[in-house]
From TrEMBL:
GO molecular function, one term: kinase activity
Taxonomic classification: Eukaryota, Viridiplantae, Streptophyta, Embryophyta, Tracheophyta
Family: Belongs to the thiamine pyrophosphokinase family.
GO CC, alphabetical: cytosol
InterPro entries (UniProt xref): Thi_PPkinase, Thiamin_pyrophosphokinase_euk, Thiamin_PyroPKinase_B1-bd, TPK_B1-bd_sf, TPK_catalytic, TPK_catalytic_sf
Protein name stated in the entry: thiamine diphosphokinase
Domain of life the protein comes from: Eukaryota
């Protein structure tokens, strides 16, 4: 699924991953099932190409109160109303970097859909939400991620956060903007545990391949 101008990236970049194949053939094979958003970023040639290939185009330009990513996540949820949302995992590529307000808007989507595991990924790192309602176990894939990581309170300060498995573990530590937040921490093992009285953003670096 593509959020508006994300379709441009798929159209332009997929043939670069398979340079020995015909670009049109690659685009036909790796086409999005759905393109949704307010349609202010997608190029007309891209829109017309994917529409001709049977991609569903959903124009929600009348809704300016939610972001394109929000619209896409809502569509996924509405498409599977009987699915246990705790079993749903959504990976969002290209959600970080670029304009800062877009980046913050995408992080806000994590909070608005806190019952769903949504991971934002870039070339450099990944981010997902750790809701305060759970004790979290994070299993590190050390071949592709780490060692740098961070825990950032979001929405409200954390009065007490406790971790294991980090170089600088937290022990009922208070974190807030304007005070301490856990940045430039280091993962030490294959498993991290986190317990907090507030929602936290977990971020970890991705290794260059």
């Amino acid at each position: 699924m593509c959020a508006d101008g994300g379709a441009n990236r798929v159209y332009d970049d997929m043939p670069l991953l398979l340079p020995h194949e015909n670009a049109v053939d690659v685009r036909k094979r790796y086409k999005p099932d759905v393109i949704k958003g307010d349609m202010d970023s997608i190029r007309r040639d891209v829109l017309e190409f994917y529409a001709s290939m049977g991609t569903q185009i959903i124009n929600e330009s009348e809704d300016q109160d939610t972001t394109d990513l929000h619209k896409c996540i809502a569509y996924i949820c509405d498409s599977a109303p009987n699915l246990d949302k705790s079993n749903l995992c959504i990976l969002v590529a290209g959600a970080l970097g670029g304009r800062f307000d877009h980046e913050i808007g995408n992080i806000n989507v994590l909070c608005r859909f806190s019952n769903i595991r949504i991971t934002l990924i870039s070339d450099d790192c990944l981010i997902h939400l750790l809701p305060r309602t759970h004790r979290h176990e994070i299993h590190i894939q050390s071949s592709v991620e780490g060692p740098h990581c961070g825990l950032i309170p979001i929405g409200m300060p954390s009065g007490s956060t406790t971790t294991t498995g980090l170089q600088w573990d937290l022990a009922e530590t208070e974190m807030r903007f304007g005070g301490l937040i856990s940045t430039s921490n280091i993962v030490k093992g294959e498993k991290i545990t986190v317990q907090s009285d507030s929602d936290l953003l977990w971020t970890i670096s991705i290794k260059k391949m």
